[in-house]
User: Fold these one by one.
Assistant:
Number 1:
Amino acid sequence: MTNNAMAWTSGDLPSFTGRTVVVTGANSGLGLAEATQLARVGAKVVLAVRDTAKGEKAAASIDGDTEVRRLDLADLASIRTFADEWTGDIAVLANNAGVMNVPEARTADGFEMQIGTNHLGHFALTNLLLPHITDRVVTMSSMMHRGGRIDLADLNWEHRSYNRVAAYGQSKLANLMFSLELQRRLAAAGSTVRSLAAHPGYASTNLQTRTGNPVFDLGGRIGNKVIAQSAEAGAWPMLFAASQDVPGGSYVGPDKLNETRGHPALAGRTARASDLTMCAKLWDLSEELTGVSFGG
């Protein structure tokens, strides 16, 4: 960790020259901010996006070495194609993409959209790409993990009445638990690759205003203007975790106002997010659902 971590910003990023970074959901918001800063310090940044036209537009706004590749995290076939077509090393995989508080919907494989996109999609992608990853995996979680509950018997909301906020919290808790179990498995395998997690605090992005619910969207617009920090500042924890010498299993978030804003620092997690037995059970279920196991 840097000596002055509490005042760290993206301006403190070290050189990434000669290193490849894959950023999911990099065509807007936090992902675009992360991609922009990583390209600035010399990384080859691969924007892994569902809409390649938007990805190309985003890439055109970035000063540096970029490439756009199609990846739909709500479709296991797309994830497998992305991984199968990959050659070469990946220094850092930034699992950034996500959906938030959306209406009930299903992925191409029948998963509830939020757990399917935010967790199961990244679970499959990470394990399929793991043979190529040389340094670390950073997975984006959220303060909303604190209200999350993992229901192993009904992960995909097939038997419960759907609750979009609870479904989002479950998916963000799953991100954090996945990151911790991945680190345990990497260490057990003797790998030097690290798994970390981050959260942006309350950052102004389009997630808050694309929920499909006018009331939620209005609240998001107001919150983005009145409370939120910028997407650029919200990207700092992910960039810190992607570049600094922090232990595997660490969780990074903003350091001020109950982790809603500020400079990156080690963040707090709930007891549920640290339950190693449940982490392992979620991993096993994720393998069963996706057909993807540790390391592909």
Number 2:
Amino acid sequence: MDTASAYDILRMTIDTILLACAPILAVALLVGLIISFIQALTQIQEMTLTFVPKIVAIFGALALTLPFIFGTLTRLSDRVFDLIVSGGV
């Protein structure tokens, strides 16, 4: 295994991780911004108001995007296993 193939596998892994976690992070960001905006307008600084809706939204987004995440991770593992079988690693 040379450094170019190790770099390629590492790049594919990082790209896959970023792609798989992007929907969850986007939902968390959007819900956090909405809650912060509501808190700024109403001046309610309750800590549970920050965490509970965000956790519910994250679990909902996770339930909806789980097939996408699984497919993305499966494609990465298939590519890496193909490299191993072909002797590229």
Number 3:
Amino acid sequence: MINRDKLYIFILILTLFCNCRNRNIEYYKNGNIKEKFLTKKGILKENFDNKKIQIILKQFADIEIDSSTILYFKDIRNQKKQIDIYYKTEHKQIIIQENGLIEREGFIKNGNPIFKWKFYGQTGKLELIRDFVFIKGKPFINQEKYYDSEEELTYRGNGFIEIKHKDTIKLNNEFKAVINLPIPFYKKKKSKIFVCLSKNTIDFNDDFSNEDEIEKVYFYNFNTEQNNKKWITGVNFNHSAVIGRKYNQSGKKLMKGIIYEYLDSSKDSLNSIRKKYFTIPFYVTKNE
């Protein structure tokens, strides 16, 4: 007859084992691993369906894989793999092609892409960088760059904004920034830009959800504002503008604004507007 104490201990161990298995690993009916949670660096040495994933992880030297990091492996359609990396307060997602190379990678927030995402071809070369921002609660493709190779930028997409400014200014001095759109949305038609900031102390919300209600001040391109041409050289004056504002309080500041690109034709200028959103961080120091 089995000792009750031993039977109780056996059932307890079996229960803990099953709970641990269900919590960390999900299996296919044939016994192969479908999904797996990893919480320690050493576990990476254990067997997994696709050993190439371990090689890929070595590329992420900026991510410290320790007991506070959770890695989530998942098989998705077309024999691809998905890796979700949770570290600190961020969630990075990597999609692996069938050949074991990265297809795309970037950060996730509330199930949506955010910040810069990189897209790669079948040979592993970088083809596209796409920048996502949340506008009125929804992900918005704000900027994008296409590449023929990792070094050569292709004149496609809606381009990345170039912003030149000082990181620190003194109290009551005007903060100035030059906004440049090196790759416009309209490439075969003549277009121009203007930039808007909030006019009063009430600024745009982080997701610009109050964009339609807030009072704005406008800054026009260098060809429209001829006096500002002296501030910059070597750019397309139709796609560049200078913005400015004074601050009467010191501390860290965020200047939020919107770039409007439009066709330089009265008949279709209103219907042709394309927007880009930006936030400029800087400091205002007290006068000594």
Number 4:
Amino acid sequence: MKKTLIAHSPDADDIFMYYAIKFGWVDMGGVKFENIAEDIQTLNEKALKGVYEIVAISFALYPHIREDYAPLRTAVSFGNGYGPKVIKKKGAKLKRNFKVALSGEHTTNAMLFRIAYPDARVTYMNFLEIEDAVLDGKVDAGVLIHESILTYNSELEVEREMWDIWQELAGKELPLPLGGMAISRSIPLNKAIEYEETLTKAVHVAREHKHKLSEMLLERNLVRIDAPTLDKYLELYANDDSITLSDIQYSAINKLFEIGYKHGFYDSPIKAEDFMIPAEYKSLRNS
């Protein structure tokens, strides 16, 4: 059997959306799936180098890898009224050039933050280290992502919601595009379509069996949070809107790319639809 490695982040939503495959609830004929979990910036950097065939990425990275990867329509995470948080110590006043910790240069939150706070002094670190860096005074503020937005220390407070920054930059209310999956263009088209179908089914099955799958993840210590927090977190980032991209989600991704191009992060404007796997190829090929 062909071994196919899927690289995703260690946060609970990615684990949840993949593990219907890991537990054998979904499979693909002739393929044995394996997985590896790495922090999102590491995944972004490896996508830039073309290391993995199927990899989780920040949406803000995609224009940089468009020639080598196609975005998948499934396993997507958006914020809708919520998202990453700019946090600081309670009562702290931030100067114009405050020092801030971000989770990686190519993350969506980093791009939006840098646009909103051009004078901030940015340092990058693993997302798991950001909260302690603020508490220890190594930085004045940090942007929390993943489960940390629900579990941060009571000595900290929110300076600003990334959702609010996004709405101001977008100029209208759109879901905040955070992360998704990308597949290498080196994979034959018919096989790439099959991979996308399988991963879509995995997210769909995970949602159908959310409570059972969550129990299994908790029993095996595969997530870093408790049951109530996991339930809440999955409704934020691995919900029914994660199964396949909707029209409004396409609009949001395109607005993100437009904003990034306007502020000099990309070399040309692009539309997400122009780079997707042409799923219609399968039916045309078999007609």
